[in-house]
Amino acid sequence: MRIKKRLSALLIALIGLMSGYAPSAAQEELSHVAFGIHFGPNTDVSADWVMQLGVDWVKVYTIGSAYAFRGKRILYRFDMGYPENWEQFRQAIAEKARAIAAAPIDAVEIHNEPNLSHEWGGRPPNAWQYVQMLRVAYTTIKRIKPSLIVVSGGLAPTITTPNRMAVDDLEYAREMFENGAADYFDAFGYHPYGYNLPPEADPFGAQPLVFRRTERIRALMESYGIYKQIWLTEFGWLRDPREDGFQCSNYDPAFTGFAWMAVSGKQQADYLVRAFEYARQNWPWAGPMFVWNMNWQQMDWLAPCDHMRWFGLLRHNGEPTPAYYALQRMRRYPISYLPRLWLVSDAMTAEISLFCPQRLKLGSFTVHNIGYPASLELNVLPVNIGQLFVEVEPPRPRLGQPVTVYVNALDLKSPGKYPVYINVRTIINGRAVSQSVQGYVIAWHREGSC
């Protein structure tokens, strides 16, 4: 038998439409991108500022803060240090996970910017160590509350410094994936700050640290077969302090390295709104986006020129910035909190001689969820019509598990191009969803060795 397989990759994008179901115009306006904001603890800023902003999500830093935002979804930042005693670490994680599970918290971000040394108490960042912590946190949280969404700690966009106290986010992510991190998060966290350029700036331009660097992170994920959502758990632009009468410069220790990032308040407002729209239109794999921040200007213990203050949506006197009003007026779309199927297949095409028809491996594909994190039960059903008998293994795969397609061509009698269809079915929000992948067997009247 002489079989020729094409090795080119075929990506089949599936929209997740219901079988026999056409979406209405209103449903087509659903957005996968939700609007979130950071709200810091220990200030006298009222939660009303968040509620009036019209956000979908709030990222909080204490479990108690989760109770202040009734009707909003909550992401909790779970900070941790590298353990000296792993058993004590597991016990501490379990205790904290039980407290999180009892609170109105929807998702947990495991640590923050683990590719920077200052998030490790001055230790050099180590992706292998972080993945071990992520693994313990993920498995413990899922044992206590399976429905809680676990987001990996958002990586900081940066370059590797000579002393490796900061590690390039792409390099760090690669090391995470090499060490099996994809099994231990429901969504990948990332912090795509825009620095001083607009959100549409080319990530392959002279300045690579831009909002769209997220696309490079996505390409890296897909190269490892990872198709889970990316959550932008922190992003924003730094407003020029001079607009409020503060002369902050690189000579100020609290502002060193940040002066060049400053944009006007009008630009900050414009860039934030455009970032949401860009992600909605171009990133079907993006999830909630959390603007950094609401109220760091009201943290009296910070130096007046501390850079964290100048990302805030409130001024030092408590008045809203132009960015606050722009986000408040930003067009809203109903949010889809549903999974979305995505099939990735090889060419699924083989050639066979009619002189020696046999059972052959046609190819393989995987089923992924690029939408909101959820557990799905999948059924893979080959369509057996005509002279080909199609089999799949396994018939009930997990998300991301390869499905191999076999074709029995013993009954083929004449040359031609024979289509092969495989249906993938699941239930989403109580509705049956069916998508398909297609391949071909090309039969020839060709003599010669098999």
UniProtKB/TrEMBL annotation:
Keyword Signal appears in the UniProt entry: yes
**GO MF terms on file?**
hydrolase activity, hydrolyzing O-glycosyl compounds
Q: Which residues form the signal peptide?
A: 1-24
Q: Which InterPro entries match?
A: GH, Glycosyl_Hydrolase_39
The record's PANTHER family line, in alphabetical order, gives: ALPHA-L-IDURONIDASE, BETA-XYLOSIDASE-LIKE PROTEIN-RELATED
Q: What is this protein called?
A: Glycoside hydrolase family 5 domain-containing protein
Entry-linked SUPFAM superfamilies: (Trans)glycosidases
Task: Give the coiled coil ranges.
Answer: none
Query: Keyword annotations for this protein?
Result: Signal
Instruction: State which residue ranges cross the membrane.
Output: none
